[in-house]
Every structure is written in C-alpha cells, then in structure tokens.
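Obj.: predict assembly geometry.
Materials: sequence records (below).
Method: joint structure prediction, all chains together.
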Amino acid sequence: MKRKKFIQVISFLILRGCAYLILAVLLLFIYDIASKGGAVISWEFLTQAPRRGMTEGGIFPAIVGTFLVTMVTAVISIPVGVFAAIYLNEYARQTRLTRIIRLSIRNLSGVPSIVYGLFGVILFVNAMKFGTSLLSAGLTLGLLTLPWTITASEEALKTVPQSFREGALALGASKWQTIRTNVLPYSFSGIITGAVLGLARAAGETAPIMFTGAAFYLPSLPHSLKDQFMALPYHLYVMATQHHSIIKVRPLAYGTALVLLMLILAINLGAYITRYRLRKIKME
Amino acid sequence: MKMEEKIKIEVRHLSFYYGSTPALKNITMKIAENKITAVIGPSGCGKSTFIRCLNRMNDILPGTRVEGEILIDGQNIYSPQVDVIELRKRVGLVFQKPNPFPKSIFDNVAYGLRINGVKNKRIIEEIVEKSLRQAALWDEVKDRLKDNAFSLSGGQQQRLCIARALAVEPKVMLFDEPCSAIDPIATAKIESLIHQLRNNYTVIIVTHNMQQAARVSDYTAFLMLGELIEYDKTEKIFTNPSHRLTEDYITGRFG
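Observations (raw structure tokens):
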C-alpha cells in the first residue's frame, strides 16, 4: 500500500517536472538573450539604420522588412490555406485523392525550410522571374506556412457542430451560404489563431528568405514588391556568422535576437488574446 | 384505408440504403394535406431516415442511396429537375435536439429570410414576430430579441427552432422526435403548438412516444425494421390495429 502511494507521488512529480521544464527553458532562454542584448536596446536601435559597416546604429530596416515580408506571406497563406481547408473539410468526400492531398500536407510540414528556400529560387526567382525580392520571399514563406494554416483551419472547422450545418441546410440555405453564415463565423477565432501562429513561425525563418529576397545590407528601405529587403532573422544570422568583426558586434546580434523574440512572443500573445476575446463573444 | 382528404405527399416504393444495408424497404403511403401524420416504431426502425427523405436531408450523407419516388403536390422530389434548396424551403424540418445557431434570437428566426435575399427590415421584423407568435414564444422573448439564443431554456430553444422553420413559410413541416430532449411541460407546449399548425400545414412527426402520437396525430404509420407494417387513422391504430406486430408494439410488448 505504501509502495503504491510512493510510486504515485514519484510519477506525479516527474509529470509535473516535465511540464515545468518547458517553462524553465523558455524563461532561461529569454533571460540569456535579454541579459546580453538588453543593453543595446534603445529608441535609436529600433528606429535607425545600421551604420559603419553594421557596427553601429540600429535595425530599423530589418524590422520593416520582416513586417513587410510577413504581410506578403499572410496575403498568400491565409486565403489559400483557409479555402483549401474549407474544400477539404466541407466539400470533398473521402476519396483516394483527398487522402493523398492530406498526406501531402502532412509531408510538406516536415520538409526542411532550406528546401523551401531552394524551391523558391527555382520557382519564384527564376522561373516566374520575380527576382530576389519581397514577393519571392513572401511567396516562399507562404508555401512554408500553408500546411500549418490548412491544418489549423481544418481543425477549427471540425469544431463546428454538424447541427449548425444541418439547421441551415434545412432552411433552404445553399452549401456556401451555410459555410459563410454559420460555419466560418463560429470557427473564425480558431482559424485566425492558427494562421497567426503560422505567420509568427514564418517571421522567424532565415533559410527560405536568404536566397529569395533578403539582403545582407541595404542603404534604403524597399519601395516595391520587386525590391530586396533586410529581415531580422537574416540580419541576426549575418551578425552572428558573416560579419567582418563578429566579436565586436555580438551585443548588436543579441539585441536583434531579443527584438525578434519579443516580436514573435507578441504575435503569439496577440493571437491568444484574439482567440480568448472572440470565444467570449461567441459564448455570450 | 380510404382517405377523404386531399393528398399532399405520395410515397411510392421508397427504399433507402446506407451502403448496402437497407434502412427503408419499399414504402408506399399517401399523406393527407393539413393533417398530422405520426410515424412510430422501435429505435432503428427507419423513422428518422424516412422523414429526412421528405426534404432530402439524407443527400448530405455520403454512401447512401434512394430508390422509388416521393411526390409532393404531384412532383417527384427526387427527379433531377428539382432544386433541393427550393424543396427545403417548402418542407421545413425541426430536429431532435434543439439546434439554434450561435446568434441572437431575432437573427435565428430571420436567418431563412436573409439567406433568401429578403432585405427589407420592416418585412423581416413582421415575419419574425409572426413566426415567434405562431411558435408560442413571442411573449417570452419579445423584450430580449437581441440576446443569444443559447440563453434560452431547452424547450424555448426548440420553439425557437420551430419559429425559425415557420419563418420561411413552408407548406409541410417535419418534426423529428422534437420533444425527446426536453421536459414534460415544454413537451406539452410543443404538442399543443403542433396541433395548431394543422390548420395551415401538412405535419409529419416522428416520435417514439406513443401517447404523443395518439394525442396529436390524425394518421399514424407504424414502421419496423424499415418496413411499413401498418398505416391508418390514429384512432384505428390505437384501438383496433389490424396487424399483430402493431398491437404488440402499442401495448408495450416490445420497443
């Protein structure tokens, strides 16, 4: 009897330990980066361009570039992902073809991001002649996030009770009317959360953009979709491995990492808050 | 059985299959206009499948097949020319479990009008009020039309679903065990409501509650294992059934 209880207590501690470990790792991570990069964060760092061979100044162009390329990604991946999910979940019957599509989606989410980068070079930069640009990089990141957007949207659509669909159909609604007025509003918060989490991931990627549009250093901000851009993760990569005096710019690299990390945490937090708010509205 | 009333629906040799399993076997019956027809029978006898054939709700189930014809006002609803959306506007369905939409009470009732393109606010308000009155719900909700439908009790939700179905002005109303998920007092309200609908609608109600069938209906059909065993005036079925199985069922020997 005692032994049984002892085992139970130990197992419980192990389970709890594993859960707390995740939190501890994240906090340690943030602490490490914040302690080494916090000192360089200033208003100038956030609002000015790099100077003197990127040994001084700020990271403003990289922030703008990451923002812009994430917008392009969103414009591609949210509509395509949501429509694909609607098709798969609402229209498609279970056939061999839809099973293959689902399997492909799962496989795509496991493809390394550098492969997406190379694919983007072949397809968008060369074949479609978009050049190394915001557009090519955004499209490449769009492809990368599609599996997440589709899967998250499909999961959200699955939470809509079948009775909402049947009720609308029984009143003479067409299938699309049913989806538009009864299915999408209910699953909206889940879809948006999934899409935004996918974008947060895209915003932090380096490999897919380094050949398709991100630049080492640019004297000016991009003016159109055909321009190259600077981006936070690539800037960080440059500062950490490619710079002519890596040791000297290390604090700047940590500062960049801190900004990127905070940006992604903020996006994720925003997604959770949106979801929470929308859920509350739904339940009232 | 001789039927004096005008025939609204004629079912001819209707069979229905889930995959290769038959759920309905060769059912033929005529349903009278502006009368209440009850469909009774033990669980799994095909009652719900039958009623869902009448507005083609079974179309959305994959792997199913229909044989035979259902004529409503003389037109076969399974013929390829029939627009299933138009059909469902003419043949309303109230489900077993109340299924209000996650919208306000007003928007629930207005839903069918809006998807049909009615934009005029005054007309929508009029029909919403009329439908809620018909469903005997108006007095309970008139001051809280903007509240979410989920704030209503189960019985109120079911009357809301009835109002929602009435708002699109169908000619036939189908009820698929409408009281199985609600309490006895709410059930009494819905029964009296269904009874009143008879004046303007052809009503078909599926129920496993025999007292309910006896109380509200004019005609009763008894189904078992997908077959129509007996179909007659309700009075006849419950007092002097011709078939042994019917008698066994209504006297509670099985079911």
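Conclusions so far: Residues 7-99+171-250 of chain B form a domain with the Rossmann fold fold (CATH 3.40.50.300).
To do: check interface contacts against the pulldown list.
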